[in-house]
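Worked example 2:
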Amino acid sequence: MPSPSAAQSPATPKTSAIEGRVTRKRMSPLRRKIADQLVSAQQNAAILTTFNECDMSHVMALRSKLQDSFTQTFGVKLGFMSFFVKAVVEALKAVPAINVRVDGDELVEQHFYDIGVAVGTERGLIVPVIRDADQKSFAQIEKDILAYAAKAKEGRIELSDLSGGVFTISNGGVYGSLLSTPILNPPQSGILGMHTIQQRPIAVDGQVVIRPMMYLALSYDHRVVDGQQAVSFLIRVKQCIENPARMLVGA
């Protein structure tokens, strides 16, 4: 007869009993690098997120109106991301406090606009950088994004493609995300999260109307960016998206 202590102790599962229930594999170098970056951001920055929403009606209408001629002229489609890249550039110019990074006990003010665009790949999320986005047309931005996507798919992305950005845009909306709090991409001080477009009722001139709405999220480093600056930045992005014709003509 077994002792009480033996009866109470759980049986140790045999290897054969758990075989096939789990699979172990080493993290890829890229996944380890991503993990290190995320942990670094959480440990070394005071991350705070502010939210807003924008009406996508005008962007969608303008995109639909120009799509055929744009594609025929430039050989690429006019997507949403180029609008947001341009809107972020305008917001960085309006609120330069976001375009900074911490280096030891110094703040480094950046006077250029290299914008990272998060791209999902089979190997993980990468953030290639659109260089001098303020000087590029919508068409060139779309071409750059397509070129990076092709390089990522073929495994030809280089470290130089991913380094040196001053701000990042992440589009969780392509996966159906309604709202999220994006994590900073160190040493940057801000990241904009785009989300899925939903038809929602909103009040316009005292009337309830249905509009295609998108939630926006700006995560920022509160050590160097104040709440007022973050809110002002996000409102500027919203204004640009809701009046996209001004960005196209550079007004």
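The chain has nine helices and eleven strands. The two ends are 89 Å apart (CA to CA).
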